[in-house]
Amino acid sequence: MNDERLAQAADDTDETRPEPNPLEQPEQPEQPAPQERPPGRKRRGPGPFTLLVLPALVTVTGVAAFLALGGLPNPWPDDPDAKPSTAVDIDPSYVPWLRKAASACTVLEPSVLAAQIDQLSGWSDDSDELSGQKGIAAFTDSEWRTWGKDDDGNGGSSPRDPADAIMALGRRDCSLAGKVTELRTEGRVNGDLVELTLAAYAAGPDAVTEAGRVPTEAKAYLDEVQALIPRYEALDRDDSGAGGSAGALLTAPVTPLTITSPYGSREHPLTGVTKLHTGVDFAAPQGAQVVAARKGRVVFAALTSAYGNRIVIDHGTIQGKRLETTYSHLSSLGVAVGQTVEAGAPIGHVGSTGLSTGPHLHFEVILDGYYNDPRPWLVPNGG
User: Fold this and answer.
1) Would you say 332 and 349 are in contact if contact means Cβ atoms under 8 Å apart?
2) Exposed e or buried b for every residue in 332-348, given b needs 16+ CB within 10 A?
3) Which residues of 200-231 are buried (b: 16+ CB within 10 A; e: fewer)?
4) Confidence of residue 57 (pLDDT cuts 50, 70, 90)
5) Separation between Cα atoms, residue 325 and residue 329, nearest integer Å
6) Pick from 152, 146, 145, 156: nearest CA to 167
7) Helix or strand or coil: residue 298?
8) What does R_g of the chain's alpha carbons equal in angstroms?
9) Cα three-residue angle 221-227-228, rounded to 5 degrees
10) How far apart are CA 199 and CA 219, in angstroms?
11) pLDDT (tens digit per residue) in 191-209
12) Average pLDDT of the chain?
């Protein structure tokens, strides 16, 4: 499918150059009466150095000082609404998956998963030839057969797919958390549940059970992960910008969020062509209100042949990557190109225009030009 996107022009900035400092002439001491000059000889003015070179040096020095103090403002700043969680130095497309994976059990936080991945791979998906570990979560083939799934719906399950790997690590950790919680309830082990879970990951549940606490062989791994957690604690806070719950960057474009066709490979119900379904279809009655999922600027609002009435909103950049959302098959358009909208602001109504089998909202998330599964980006349960 085509991604209708309009380039946003940078704001003009006026460069302010410091004025050169005026050259002050020192007071001249009194001189004796000048002797009479030979006829025809005139007094010389300032030389080339004073007229040309010295002002240039002053100007260059002033500009250098200006730039050293910060220079011109960046005409393409990051999203001003992005809270500290998006300031974490990882690919922003990982953030929704970290939060979704951690939400599977109460013991885990996104920061713990992120710290684990940092310790395991440093966020590199290079394979370890000696151990056979693959992807950012360092799964072996046998481990992947147990924990791996096609979580992002792209038609394949792989430890080298970051979304799949993050979700698999969350499932594995939550399983271990369940075991150590039960052991602690029975009084067979003592300690913090997060620490016991990480210890069980490093040394196995049996080693934790035998020691009755964090076993010695797991302490080095535990210390390394705990040292990294503060780097990612901002992931645990809400940054939806719309009053939504923590764990999502976008608020629901319609409510409730009833999915009739998820993101992923599918056969189109009208054309019969099997290809990537680039968004999620939400069931909603004709004329239901559609709202902006995040503050942004409308960059497209028009009727198209396939999408029907379609709106594209540019939400600015998150860690240098541009985030856009799209809203298609609308019965009517309530905004125009160039308009700025707030999160939750009405932008149109549900319809069945374009290639559509009935009233619904086709909703897409596009990060730096690539489609993402919208589900982990959204506030759970429709906000």
Assistant:
1) yes
2) ebbbeeeeebebbbebb
3) bbbbebebbbebeebbeebeebbebbeebbee
4) low
5) 14
6) 152
7) strand
8) 31
9) 95
10) 7
11) 999 999 999 999 999 999 9
12) 78
